[in-house]
Amino acid sequence: MKNYSRQREAILTVLRSTDTHPTASKVYHKVREIIPNISLGTVYRNLAQLKESGEIISVNVGDGFEHFDGNAKPHIHMHCKKCSAIIDVMLNEDVISDAAQKNGFVPENMVLVINGLCKTCNQNDVN
Amino acid sequence: MKNYSRQREAILTVLRSTDTHPTASKVYHKVREIIPNISLGTVYRNLAQLKESGEIISVNVGDGFEHFDGNAKPHIHMHCKKCSAIIDVMLNEDVISDAAQKNGFVPENMVLVINGLCKTCNQNDVN
DNA sequence: CTCTAAATCAGTAATGATTACTATTTTATT
DNA sequence: AATAAAATAGTAATCATTACTGATTTAGAG
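YS: structure for the whole thing
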């Protein structure tokens, strides 16, 4: 059902070799250095597929772009509204405010999105 | 610099009278019940302005839509990937896993976005 | 090694949420 | 009432993302 593809491998390699949370477009341009004629549609399709399979995750910081992350382990993303940096903070370190202080980050507004299944949907069936 | 407008007031009223985290389009249709000829552009402009002034916040759960929230206090949003419900959980209740358990929520993937200023940007200047 | 079907691709067109634009109306102040 | 800034309705433009198509690649069987 899922065949190997050089394109998908290259995309995964790019995502795993950076901590900058690139957009689809950024990934596209980076992968073009490896596969010069890869198409944007292929990048989008594979990003969706890698996300579906849990190999990568995505973050939406409200700038209108989906940002991709090769680190699929649950962690905190701190988003600077000025330079747009997205900073990783592993979850076992500390609670929210501590984590913020340790990074010299001044939190203004925080949103936690937990994706999963709510009580009702989880009881109704398996998928 | 900021004048009163009936349209903005109606938008705020709509947002404060629901906990469903509507999209701009949903807000538009709801406000049309109060002001039948309000335009979509006006809704978008005022949502941006209300967000800027901190009267409302927005959540992006990765479904391609920006969701608006009349409750500007920091809180957790749990997003069901099946029914798309966005459930509010106040922050002082408990830590993440506890909050999830209490709501019968099965977390699969969690992303915390903290908007603010990073160390570098905060040291460089005031705004 | 062929053969075949399913999966994937490159390239391009279409979609649709959001933003920009413009002429008109409303607000707040004198 | 007069005036300037702010806001509006309506429409057009933008652009990230998705859908589509005919060609290519993959994987497994013979």
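YS: worth flagging: Chain A touches chain B at residues 57-62, 66, 74, 76-83, 85, 87, 95-96, 100, 103-123 (CB under 8 Å).
IM: good catch. Also The two ends of chain A are 19 Å apart (CA to CA).
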